[in-house]
User: What shape does this take?
Amino acid sequence: MDENEHSSFIPDGASEPLFFDVFLGSLCRRIEDWLQNNTGSVAG
Assistant: This one.
């Protein structure tokens, strides 16, 4: 979480969050899209 308590996603090996969002569901969708685009895998 950032200083405003927004959830964030920091991929392995990164030092800064790639995404943050006020709503957890929105953040999860962004992470899922990112995973699909970067690995070709479907989360879940």
